Amino acid sequence: MKLQPDKSSVQTITALGPGWIGVQADRIEHSVVIGSRGQRDAWPCKRFEDLTAEHFAQLAEIDCEVVIFGSGERLRFPQAAWLRPLIAKRIGVETMDTAAACRTYNILAQEGRDVVVALLLEPAV
Prior knowledge:
Structural class: alpha/beta
CATH architecture: 3-Layer(aba) Sandwich
Number of strands: 8
Radius of gyration: 13 Å
CATH topology: Hypothetical Protein Mth938, Chain: A
Number of helices: 3
CATH superfamily: MTH938-like
Strand content: 25-35%
Largest sheet: 5 strands, mixed
Strand order of the largest sheet: 5-4-8-6-7
Number of domains: 1
């Protein structure tokens, strides 16, 4: 599925499929953190059940306005306690399924917002 116009001045998610996303010309098949300022880091988590407070503490170290958490194929919420480091830094947090997180990230990034998306990309079955 194509997610964005052909031209963009910021890093955008250009495609999405089961267990993968496209960022510009790259295909990514592992959980990843992507930012509108160009950051792209592996996020070491293969399944929602593997998430820990440390995964969200890593996100709190990134200076941004808002973090969008893409929870996989379906909407699942992290434990509230895991979000404390983000809340303490006054970083907004939104949770949605990964497809919705990709679309929302692209819109906010195109608007010039300082946004980060943390995508849980579970292996395709």
